[in-house]
Amino acid sequence: MSAGGRDRAFARWRPAGWTALSLALLLALWEIGHRAYGTLVLPSPGETFAALWQLTRDGRMLPAVLETGRNALGGFAAALVIGAALGALAGRSGAMRLLLQPVATLMLGVPAIAWVVLSLLWFGGTGFAVMFTVLVTGAPIVFAGAAQGVRTRDGGLDRMARSFRVPARVLVTDVYLPHMLSYLFPALATALATSWKVAVMTELLAGTGGIGDGLATARVNVDTVKAMAWILAVVVLLLAVERLLLEPVRRRVEAWRRELPGGLASSDPSGGAPT
Fold it and tell me: Looking at per-residue confidence, does 177 or 107 come out higher?
């Protein structure tokens, strides 16, 4: 079979099939690592899932999940609003871009652990310290995606809209917003993943409860099995939030791509027609 034929055959697989194959491969590698190094270094998948279930039955998992979820999603929501607003402003105005871009670059250059230390010094071991750390690490990422999306909009559409007297509301909702979101969604996915990691790291150092506090306790007790169980909880939560929150919105706002000639979605993030 030719390379093109193999590619077409693989493309006929449903995404769920690829996801299942990827997870099966990961579990196999995990089991191999466990057999090579033992439970102290890398617990088996079975031991980890059993520990996760035990933490859930003991009533320790749900409060920790809710605490971390509140901190991570609260900071992420603030980063989304502030980063998208400032990014859109920078994309429309060259002066604002020159003013804000160095600040965003500077904030991206500061290590996350440095923001954790500063937030703990400023706000103490509170949930607000966690949300602030998530905000300052996620907002520059959202800013970059929003600025690029607005900056690369098609100026010809503006002129055409003025010629046909298209209402401003229609132009924003049907043209500008879908184009901007095609750049913004990859940034949102990155910021969302960063928010969970930063939230757990801050909780671990601050002792404010949540999944990070559970990890800190497992570290003190040298309990690798429970540490892996808490890590697994973070990963599952991140995937669940992305699938249940971001993915449906992305499919809805990018429905216009499926209406391109031939029914093919463009691979160009700017929404150009496929070649």
Answer: 107
Residue 209 near residue 200 (C-beta atoms within 8 A): no
Helix (DSSP H) and strand (DSSP E) numbers for the chain: 13, 0
Angle (nearest 5°) at CA 246 between 241 and 252: 145
Tell me 223's DSSP state. -
> Under CATH, to which class is 43-251 assigned?
mainly alpha
DSSP H or E run through 235: helix 224-241
Query: Residues of 248-263 as b/e, b for ≥16 C-beta within 10 angstroms?
Result: eebeebbeebeeeeee
Confidence of residue 255 (pLDDT cuts 50, 70, 90): low
Q: Quick check: helix, strand or coil at residue 221?
A: coil
Q: Decide if pLDDT at 198 tops 50.
A: yes
pLDDT at 153 over 60: yes
Amino acid at 183: Y
Residues 29-66 as b/e (b if ≥16 CB within 10 A, e otherwise) read ebeeebeeeeeeebbbbebbeebbeebeeeeebeebbe
Hey, is 218 helix, strand or coil?
helix
What are the tens digits of pLDDT across the range 35-83? Answer: 999 888 899 999 999 999 999 999 899 999 999 999 999 999 999 999 9
Q: Which residue has the tokens 């690369």?
A: 152
The whole model's pTM is what? 0.76
Region of 271 on the Ramachandran plot (φ > 0 left; ψ -120 to 50 alpha; else beta): left
Count of all residues that appear for the chain in the document? 275
Return the domain boundaries, the chain: 43-251
